[in-house]
Specification:
The protein is an all-beta fold. It has 3 domains: 33 residues, no CATH class; 151 residues, Jelly Rolls; 151 residues, Jelly Rolls. It is built from 1 helix and 25 strands. The strands form 6 sheets. Strands 3, 16, 21, 22, 23 and 25 form a 6-stranded antiparallel sheet that branches. The chain is globular.
Length: 349
């Protein structure tokens, strides 16, 4: 079944199939698209075991493999494969130790390598962690990529560090926590970490790196993804918190103090991260477009639900493309009574 739409004196038209602008001229526009039948739908964001409960202890623990903490670091050798890097910089106060990695002189394609004296299996590790300090950044032109290698051969896939931090925050150390699954790794064996500066045009980004580890335990990922053959369009996302408190503070999350790593939110479509952000306090929610829609304060406990609407258009997730909406927890939220995330929208039949 087909449907035909006519628009007169319309400034632009969004294609119902791909969500792309078709034109910006006034006049008569006529097009035919397949008929689509939608039904309202909602689903919790869940972990690999199907649990929607996020009031868990996902803090980083165990004995890390220390990749960088000052120059030199035991078992690891730093080198510039291209570009200018300073691996023993004292230009700013380091996050840990006495030195940091200065990438302010790098340009597009500059590559830093950290190589271990012998290979290491990742079977006993769960994530990569570190800190980045941005001094200049343009979100549309700048990236910092991370990949792993074994004897110069890429293992898994690369990720962009900027998908795991808030690039609007400058001149402050920010932690990044990257589950090894995001890098396409499981029990893989590696011996190199590769950082690359990316600048598509104009002045390159200026930044520093520090305290880079491979961590044994920590972080839990929760995902919502439509099945292959399904299309789900997200209208709103609801974050619901329950805790044994009666006073709600903006610089906390219920009774939990401001988070260290934050609740990392990411939307990925067609293999590209379209949105990435972090929430450390209730104030962060409200400053990022969230609306408090309900709050129930009892004699001994409280419930807060914050709804985040889609940014003007529905967020389309296509199952056959591997699209997903994800939440990563890397802090201890076990003091909360409950924390769940629900996506609401419509499912294409």
């Amino acid at each position: 079944m087909q449907r035909t739409r006519l628009e007169v004196n319309h400034g632009s038209l969004v294609d119902g199939t791909k969500g792309t602008v078709r034109g910006d001229q006034t006049g008569l526009i006529s097009y035919t698209a397949p008929y689509r039948d939608y039904s309202g739908a909602a689903a919790f964001v869940t972990d690999d075991n199907g649990s929607a409960e996020m009031a868990v202890d996902a803090s980083i623990s165990g004995t890390p493999e220390v990749v960088y903490l000052d120059e030199p670091t035991t078992n690891w050798t730093n080198s510039a494969l291209s570009g200018t890097w300073d691996f023993a910089s004292a230009a700013i106060t380091p996050q840990g130790g006495t030195e940091s990695i200065d990438a302010t002189a790098t340009v597009d394609g500059s590559i830093a390598q950290m190589e271990r004296s012998s290979s290491i299996s990742l079977s006993g590790f769960s994530l990569f962690s570190g800190y980045v300090y941005l001094t200049t950044w343009n979100a549309s032109r700048h990236d910092i990529s991370l990949e792993t290698r074994l004897a110069g051969v890429t293992i898994g896939n690369s990720v962009n560090i900027n998908d795991y931090v808030d690039t609007g925050i400058l001149n402050a150390w920010q932690p990044f926590v990257i589950p090894k699954e995001d890098l396409g790794l499981n029990g893989s064996t590696i011996d190199q970490l590769i950082f690359t500066t990316i600048s598509t045009s104009g002045q390159p980004p200026n930044y520093y790196l520090d305290t880079i580890n491979i961590e044994e335990t920590g972080s839990t990922s929760y995902t919502f993804a439509p099945a292959a053959g399904q299309v789900f369009e997200i209208d709103t996302v609801e974050f619901t918190f329950t805790d044994n408190i009666t006073l709600i503070e903006p610089q906390q999350i219920m009774g939990v103090s401001a988070l260290t790593n934050g609740i990392r939110v990411r939307t990925t479509t067609d293999g590209v991260t379209r949105f990435a952000g972090g929430i450390k306090t209730f104030a962060d929610f409200l400053g990022s477009g969230g609306n408090e829609v309900s709050r129930i304060v009892g004699a001994a406990d409280s419930v807060v639900k914050i709804t985040v609407p889609s940014p003007g258009v529905l967020i389309r997730l296509t199952g056959s493309l591997g699209d997903f909406y994800s939440i990563v927890i890397a802090d201890n939220l076990s003091a909360l009574t409950s924390f769940r995330v629900l996506v609401r929208g419509r499912l294409l039949k």
